[in-house]
Amino acid sequence: MVQYRRSRAPGGTYFFTIALNDRRSRLLVDHVGLLANAVRDVRHARPFALDAIVVLPDHLHAVLTLPCGDADYPGRWRAVKARFARELRRAGLPLRRNRSGEYDLWQRRFWEHRIRGERDFAVHVDYIHFNPVKHGHVTRVDDWPYSSFHRYVRLGILPADWAGGSVDRPDGGFGE
Q1: Is 4 a catalytic residue?
Q2: In the chain, which end has fewer C-beta atoms inside a 10 angstrom radius, N or C?
Q3: pTM for the complete prediction?
Q4: Which H, E and C letters describe the chain, residue by residue?
């Protein structure tokens, strides 16, 4: 078996794409409160900064910064995935199990990219915020409710009409 190598830098900042197995599913937005609880609980137990996030029906993108001396982002994502699956089961949703006995909800792997500077950070955050428009869920970034874009607006980092019809759109295939 080929060993998959990930870039791990203690205290690093990373971009992630995490996807459901069923790419036609709407579970993430239909149960976004359970997902938010899972992320919050994992952040409480194993701190990290959630710099940016967007939740789409079948996948999410996020930029996280880990604490100094800590590089275990795989453990954090494993915990978020497991907690979300347990919460869905508690809510009465039937989830299939795979041959290993795990819930067959999430894709096993995820895409990660270590952020390598301010420009790289800005490009990935822009990509995250524009993603609902890219996928055709909305025509304006501020119309998508499941995005850290709204926090960026509240903090005065971005205007509410950011990328609203502009041709200067973030592109790139960041893990999709």
Answers
A1: no
A2: N
A3: 0.89
A4: CCCCCCCCCCCCEEEEEEEECCCCCCHHHHCHHHHHHHHHHHHHHCCCEEEEEEECCCEEEEEEECCCCCCCHHHHHHHHHHHHHHHHHHCCCCCCECCCCCECCECCCCEEEECCCHHHHHHHHHHHHHHHHHCCCCCCHHHCCCECHHHHHHCCCCCCCCCCCCCCCCCCCCCC
